[in-house]
Write a structure and sequence with these properties.
The complex is a heterodimer.
Chain A lengths: L1 H39 L2 H5 L9 H12 L11 H19 L3 H4 L6 H38 L13 H20 L2 H23 L7 E5 L13 E8 L21 H10 L3 E7 L4 H29 L3
Antiparallel strand pairs in A: 1-3, 2-3
Chain B lengths: L5 E10 L2 E11 L4 E5 L6 H8 L7 E5 L9 H4 L3 E4 L11 H11 L5 H10 L13 H13 L5 E4 L8 H16 L4 E6 L11 E6 L2 E7 H7 E7 L4 H6 L1 E7 L3 E7 L10 E3 L3 H24 L1
Parallel strand pairs in B: 3-7, 3-8, 5-6, 6-7
Antiparallel strand pairs in B: 1-2, 1-4, 8-9, 10-12, 10-13, 11-12
Classes of the chains: A mainly alpha, B alpha/beta.
Amino acid sequence: MIWLFWRQQRLEAAMALGLLALATALLVPLGLHMASVYAGSGAAACVAHTAADGAGCGGILDDFRHRFEHAGPIVPWLNFLPGLFGILFAAPLALEFEHGTFRLAWTQSVTRRRWLTVKLTTIYVYGLLAALGLTALMTWWRQPLDHLQGRMEPNVFDFEGIVPYAYTFFALSLAIALGVFTRRTIVATGGALLGYFALRIGIQTWAREHLVPAVKVVWRPGTPGPTNLDRAWNILSGPSDAHGHALPNGARLPATCLGGTKAQAERCLNAHHVFNVAVYQPAGRFWLLQGIEAGIFVGLAASLLLAAVWWMKRRIA
Amino acid sequence: MSVSPLQTTALGKRFGSNWALRNCSLEVPTGSVTALVGPNGAGKTTLLHLAVGLSEPSEGSVRVFGSSPQEQSRDVLPRVGFVAQEHPLYRGFRLRELLRLGAALNPRWDDALARERVDHLGLPLDQKAGTLSGGQQAQVALTLALAKRPELLVLDEPIASLDPLARREFLQSLMEAVADGGLTVVLSSHILADLERVCDHLIILARSEVQLAGPIDDIVAGHRVLTGARSDAASVGRVHSIIHESHTERQTTLLVRANGRLYDARWQVDDVELEEIVLGYLSGRSQVAEARREEVAS
């Protein structure tokens, strides 16, 4: 049976490998270049705090940031991949129902339960292996930037840790469920891609920052602010009132404060009761947030999968 | 006495609020070739799906060799060969791969038989299933079912989509398989033509219920067509079952299932062809009622 399911999935497996190869071809040269600059320029030593005093770490790190912050413009596009893996590997099952070949499969000598168990295991193993490839590539590529800036920001958080597996699991389950319920491959794949993005964008835009209440720090200009912002996910930072409500744009800063030295400006802002605020998710919460978000996707995926399995066992003839 | 290959008791299947099949009790004898005939939507596919365990009864029971095809599928499936409507095959698979599929999924797989049949059909093993003609696909699907070495072979509308030549070839293959022995066959069709040569038993299914079931010889022997001057058929109906009646201005024709000897001087009694019997059952009592209404109106 393993042979049979490999035979049915091999085209899709080749397409998934093709997508991964494309991403690899684009990111590996960039990653190698970035890694060599990171080591050669002394940035690595600065981050590891092994650089000699007076090595000019501030400048080195700023240079490095400027150079690579916006590297890899294809990265946001790679958000498609977990969704594509999902619909690619689920499509043969949807086709099975669209073409009626499940009636051929389920009337051979193996029981439906066994067929489903092996089939679904195959699909999920392939899907999660593809997710593993993507996660490994992204984690390797980003290494220097992760050290420097952390991996909390969107488009980084989404490709590391465990969430890529959860996303893939969700896309697979949604495509399987739609395929089973509608028996139409185009609905299963199109609908699953749509549903995948709706949930991804919805959670990233509205939910992720509230999964755990963000840290909010308000401080007076001139006093030391929070020190762990470098690798955190900065949701909001800027001038605010005493309660940490951000001032709408810089336009309402008292114009008289903007000239003069830094110390003068700080005194002036203090006199006008202008504070600084930072709202952020600290880097230490990476695994907590990963766990919660993965839990949401896995929970939904498991429900969809259970419904689909129930439907296949009881309702499809 | 061995258990029946297929036996149903008060079997029913409901989809939502519609009964696709109701109150179906029948027994298929070992070694018989049974035609399941009825119009489209009569419940034939539903019955066959219940028989091979693809769906679950809403009421009553179905037994294949004494076991439930759904709950004891491990015992039933190896003994049953099934070709679904439109004889589905994996289109991207080469014939060689389809045979490998059969071998992988069936412990009793007869690879020599499968290869011999494919060879006999003149099909190269490298050909993809999707490039075969409809008749060839049906033959390949039959090959997959036969190479399971089933004791019960269930075919859902196997010839409906085939052209006349492919039909004849398919039925020829089927007869050869039956001649090898040890096989009970149930096949459904919405047309009887061509099947008479192959089948020895008949089940007529219409309006979700079994209208008639039995050996074809007995069915033909038990039915008569009566022709006479236009009259009320009530006196005939008291003794025999009137299956269908039709009236012209001067003449009444009755299709009757005879209860014992049938002799009545007012009627001309004739033997009747199987096809007419089937049509009589399929058009059924609703038309009788209609005919009566017309009579009243005139």
